[in-house]
Specification:
This protein has helices at about 1-15, 30-45, 55-75, 80-90, 95-115, 120-175. The chain is an all-alpha fold. Helix 3 (about 55-75) runs antiparallel to helix 5 and helix 4 runs antiparallel to helix 5 (about 95-115).
Amino acid sequence: LGIFVVVAGIWVWWRYRKNKPLFTPQKEKPSPYVVAMQFLDEIKENKLWHAGREKEYYTRLTDVVRQYLSDELGIAAMEQTSGEILRELENCPKVDKKEQDRMAELLTTADYVKFAKYTPLQDENARYLNVAYDFVKHIYQQIQQELLEQQKAAEVMKQTEDKTEEKLQSDSQDKVAE
């Protein structure tokens, strides 16, 4: 115990002398939306499909979407097959039918490219990148809209509580005055 106290004291003194904080603060983790958009931008810049690396392109593209689903919606997409992901999306209220269909198309094409050596056309590759962008943006907008609605509902509740409290106070003051 004595050795630990001496070592800890030396460490604190050394950190103080170097003008460093005793503990490094935690960096704020970026939102899943920001991370997904950064990775999609990186994929767009690399243009792997132009270099004949379609398999790597679709692997990275679907990994970004899967990670976003895991982080934002809590769907364990990284461990699931495409079919399992699509079943999860059917049960998710934040994903509408149109987005489910587009995601099914993307995941199916990606599976063909990765496992059946399918070679999509150049415009298909760019279209699926846009599908991924649109999907991430759509989910993000749904979540932001829900948050806005919750904030509005909380404000209405607070205003109602305030009005009720004011009415009770004025009623009690009226009774005291009588």
